[in-house]
Amino acid sequence: MPSVRQVKSIRKYMPDNTYIIKTESEELLATSSAFMEEDSIMHGGIIYRPWNPSTSKLASMLLKGMKVPIKSDSKVLYLGAASGTTVSHVADIASDGIVFAAEFAPRPTRDLLQAVRDRINVVPMLADARYPESYPPFIDSVDIIYQDIAQPNQSEIMVSNATKYLRPGGIGVMAIKAKSISISEDVKSILEREVSLLEESFEILEKVSLEPLHHDHLAVMGKFKG
To answer: Which of 121, 19, 17 is nearest to 72 (CA)?
Structure first.
């Protein structure tokens, strides 16, 4: 059953199929969906799924004003799919597209499979983002790569995946996790170095700090030069 909340207003947001819902007590980011969940909101015959920016870096990016251009027909390669919550919202957005969702760890991959089991536009993959050449052969060129992984060579991973799968002019979006790169080095220095590495292959379009919800994280979006 959907949650019972007094909806005062709903306005379109960016990207596609994304909304800001104002209730009697709060404002929520949400995606319109074909799937009903326990906390879903039904209004005007449409299902809206609230999207928590405290647990989703992509949701935090959007609320910070980053204009991530996922469209309803986008082909997305998602690196670091984890248990699939954010993947499911990306699938809501790309409702007529496809989301290739890669996760390396077996346990969250099992959760991912459960989260997207009824979604025909999601292709879950047990895959290591460090080795894009090892992905299944059915992946073709994609419009967007979204990356949220805890690896020391995050920018290199983005570039190697973009080189193999991102179309020229396609968009790369990543959450740089400074403490996953080094726990001792100055955070500012880490972030500047990672952005510099990305600039070799991407025209940087936006940079947004994800404080205070995600400490020592920088969101970066760029257009692929390849």
So the answer is: 17
pLDDT tens per residue across span 205-221: 999 999 999 999 999 99
CB 70 within 8 A of CB 76: yes
The pTM is what?
Answer: 0.94
Longest CA pairwise span in the chain (Å): 52
Question: Would you give the distance in Å from CA 156 to the centre of its chain?
Answer: 18
pLDDT digits (tens, 9 = 90+) for 35-47: 998 899 999 999 9
Site of tokens 């920016």: 53
The span from the CA of 81 to the CA of 146, in Å, is: 9
CB neighbours of residue 31 within 10 Å = 24
